[in-house]
Design brief:
UDP-n-acetylglucosamine1-carboxyvinyl-transferase, Chain, binds phosphoenolpyruvate, EC 2.5.1.19, EPSP_synthase, globular, binds shikimate-3-phosphate, 3-phosphoshikimate 1-carboxyvinyltransferase, transferase
Length: 427
């Protein structure tokens, strides 16, 4: 059990582990590229290690030591048919992006993962890939894992996605890179655009026109050096820690601040939080900055629409911050939360209520009452890394001691979370 005590103050200068989305893509694109790709700042969390292990099983040599990775790419068709099923562990990004890649390969592969992955919807990716000509099946007509994919020749499509999902967009664009003609994806709102940026860094031409992004088939990737910035989704827990513990301030260095990910910064500012971006720069097509965060009394706001995809993974910890804000916070248009590692509308409400938090789940979000004194409690991560970490942050504000069960899930995206938190907490 991870134990957290009420904190007197949060202070220091820290760095968070590498961006999960960018780390996955660096390994995948490196494996498909011609030549060597070196990655520094890689996230050695369980999800990205699953991506490495899948590509190793297809014959790609990958060296990994902590946050340093070298991928010996063999070109798009250098992958070999794996001897066994590929295990994506807990990682939705791995299975969905790999579905797009596997759809182009002239062999058969089975993708499967853990209990959580088995409950997450896959037809959103499998449907358009089938339209392109891939042979894919899974439980319930391709809705659930295991997914059996026999790839081959594909036709480009113009796909209108019903959801703003970077995983859906990326899977289709990756398949499109080997399809006949042009493949385009149009989304209802902009989702994170790391795939588009990193493909360009690997030498691919990607065309954006508003909410539509297109690639032409037959392009090749060229290996290169990638430096991965710290994950803003991990930094979000530390930002929230500062906001729930009066008198705190923290400098978080080297954080990715891609505008498609910075909803958390906009929301904290809109709630009255003090947060400054320092030393802004661009590394491998990705904006990066240091974040200076200072405690301030927050007030509740409404979060909805275009903002949601820009902070989807941060909603559990935003809910924690909202319990300490003046007034109520309303989150709408976030039904995607129901299909993450857990149903995050239900798990945020059930776990925060154990502290005395007042959260009303709704069909597409939640309503959080502010100015609620939290009492230390025993919480269950329910196997969801973001729930485990969000509740640990609630524990910093709650009286007495909080225990997080099933805390090992945190390793999915934030190895060293407990030690890092201990290093900035004054009790
Ligand atoms: O493409 C990615 O790296 C991710 C996309 C998002 O999922 P969706 O595409 O399902 O919105 C996000 O929740 C996930 O943590 C990572
Ligand atoms: C939803 C998440 O990741 P994935 O979809 O890759 O499992 C997450 O990290 O919060």
């Amino acid at each position: 059990m991870l134990r957290v005590r009420q904190a007197k103050k949060i202070a220091g200068t820290v760095r968070v582990p590498g961006d999960k989305s960018i780390s996955h893509r660096a390994v995948m694109f490196g494996a498909l590229a011609e030549g060597v790709t070196t990655i520094e700042g890689f996230l050695p969390g369980a999800d990205c290690l699953s991506t490495i292990s899948c590509f190793r099983r297809m014959g790609i040599e990958i060296e990994q030591q902590g946050d340093k990775v070298t991928v010996y790419g063999k070109g798009w068709y250098g992958l070999q048919e794996p001897e066994q099923h590929l295990d994506v562990g807990n990682s939705g990004t791995t299975i969905r992006l790999m579905s797009g890649i596997m759809a182009t390969q002239p062999f058969h592969v089975v993708l499967e993962g853990d209990e959580s992955i088995a409950k997450r919807p896959m037809r959103r990716v499998i449907g358009p890939l089938r339209q392109m000509g891939a042979k894919i099946d899974g439980r319930k007509d391709g809705e659930f894992t295991p997914l059996s994919i026999r790839g081959g020749k594909l036709e480009g499509i113009a796909y209108q996605s019903p959801v703003a999902s970077a995983q859906v967009k990326s899977a289709i664009l990756l398949a499109g890179l080997q399809a006949n003609g042009v493949t385009s994806v149009t989304e209802p709102h902009l989702s994170r655009d790391h795939t588009e940026r990193m493909l360009q860094a690997f030498g691919v031409s990607v065309v954006r026109d508003g909410l539509t992004v297109s690639v032409e088939g037959g392009q090749k990737l060229t290996g290169r050096a990638i430096s991965v910035p710290g994950d803003i989704s991990s930094a979000a827990f530390l930002i929230a820690a500062v906001m729930v513990v009066p008198g705190s301030s923290l400098l978080i260095e080297n954080v990715g601040v891609n505008p498609s990910r910075t909803g958390i910064i906009d929301v904290v500012k809109a709630m009255g939080g003090r947060l400054e971006l320092l030393n802004e720069r661009v590394v491998n097509e990705e904006p990066v900055a240091d974040l200076l965060v200072t405690h301030s009394q927050l007030h509740g706001i409404e979060i909805a629409g275009d903002m949601i995809p820009r902070l989807i993974d941060e909603i559990p910890v935003i809910a924690v911050m909202a319990t300490q804000a003046k007034g109520k916070t309303v989150i709408r248009d976030a039904e995607e939360l129901k299909v993450k590692e857990t149903d995050r509308i239900a798990t945020v409400a059930s776990q925060l209520s154990k502290f005395g938090g007042r959260v009303t789940p709704t069909e597409d979000g939640m309503i959080i009452e502010g100015e609620t004194a939290l009492t230390g409690a025993v919480i269950d991560s329910m196997g969801d890394h973001r729930i485990g970490m969000a509740m640990a942050i609630a524990g910093l504000s709650a009286t007495g001691e909080t225990g997080i069960e099933n805390e090992e899930a945190i390793n999915v995206s934030f190895p060293g979370f407990e030690e890092l938190l201990a290093s900035i907490c004054q009790q």
